[in-house]
Amino acid sequence: MKEIVITEKEKRLDKFLTDHLKESRSTILKMINDGFILVNNKPCKPSKSLKEKDLITIKDGFKITTDIIPKEMDLDIVFEDENVLLINKPSGLTVHPGSGNYDNTLVNGLMYYTKNLSDVNGEARPGIVHRIDKDTSGLILVAKNNKAHQILAEDFKHKRVEREYIALLNGVFPHNKATIDAPIGRDTNERKQMAVTAKNSKNAITHLTVLKRYKNHTLVKLKLDTGRTHQIRVHMKYIGYPIYNDPVYTDKKCSKFGQFLHSANIKFTEPITKEKYEFSCPLPKEFQDYLETLEEEK
């Protein structure tokens, strides 16, 4: 059982929980309607208006019923052993089911490929220890059993897994290196977006190194000290150099490929054998081809 005491100004119950829990809005609505969420020890409607000092109780035992269908996919497997998989995810592929997409996600492909996946994160997210955005390409670790999952989760939490991203930014960034230390929370105006904000935020730190400058763009390498939702995309927008082709955090017309952000390198310790590994994967063809067009602009 989990309890939350309201300290904010008046807000609807469903909107408050969507902002503060990791569950989707549809899951939260079902939990409320099924009586797993109480306000001041009483069942209530999703539209209930919360006030300061109200007590929200989230009861144990709720299970998300899913019917995820395995789907054959051409998975780009970079590494595999008995405990983990390392996948090079293409841009455009959602990591796990949700928001109406239950048939065409990385999880569907993983379930077709193997029956050996952890279930620590529930039926909808077998094997998923961490995630990258739908339109972010590159390396993602998958756990094949619960012990491996739990150890990897601790490694991510304590920054023992190192990841580097490559991104193409709009504009010519003037410095060779920079560290962005700015807290990230839910955007108060756009619920589906994150933003640098002092309200309901968590610390977020991103390290930037310039790799190459073009006429109107900058290619950079990025390392994270924290793993907030949309962290790189939000920080790049915050400093005035948003990621090229980002459909959410820029006002520019974007192609179907999505943001030019690639999870390019990962260092981790195999959770059971304790062997240390480092892997890299090349930029997607669309990304590399566009860089070649930028070379011609010089």
CATH architecture of the largest domain: 2-Layer Sandwich
What is the strand tally? Answer: 17
Distance between the termini: 60 Å
Radius of gyration: 21 Å
What is the CATH homologous superfamily assignment of the largest domain? Pseudouridine synthase
> What's the number of helices?
6
The shape, in one word, is globular
The overall average pLDDT, rounded, is: 91
The proportion of strand residues reads: 25-35%
At the first level of CATH, the class of the largest domain is: Alpha Beta
Task: Enter the CATH topology name of the largest domain.
Answer: Pseudouridine synthase
Poorly predicted runs are: none
SSE series: EEHHEEEEEHEHEEEEEEEHEEH
- Secondary-structure-based class equals alpha+beta
Keywords:
Structural Genomics Hypothetical 15.5 Kd Protein In mrcA-pckA Intergenic Region, Chain A; 3 domains; 9-stranded mixed β-sheet; 3-stranded antiparallel β-sheet; 17 strands; 19% helix
Task: Report on this structure.
This protein has 298 residues and is α+β, with helices and mostly antiparallel strands. The protein has three domains: 2-58, RNA-binding S4 domain (Structural Genomics Hypothetical 15.5 Kd Protein In mrcA-pckA Intergenic Region, Chain A), CATH 3.10.290.10; 65-158, Pseudouridine synthase; 165-262, Pseudouridine synthase (2-Layer Sandwich). 19% of the residues lie in helices and 29% in strands. It has helices at residues 13-20, 25-33, 106-113, 146-157, 231-238, 285-297; strands at 2-5, 11-12, 37-39, 49-50, 55-58, 77-80, 84-89, 137-143, 162-170, 177-181, 184-186, 194-196, 201-202, 205-213, 217-224, 261-269, 276-280. Strands 6, 7, 8, 9, 10, 14, 15, 16 and 17 form a nine-stranded mixed β-sheet that branches. β11 (184-186) and β12 form a beta hairpin. The longest helix is centred in the last third of the chain and has 13 residues, at 285-297. The protein starts with a strand and ends with a helix. The mean pLDDT is 91.
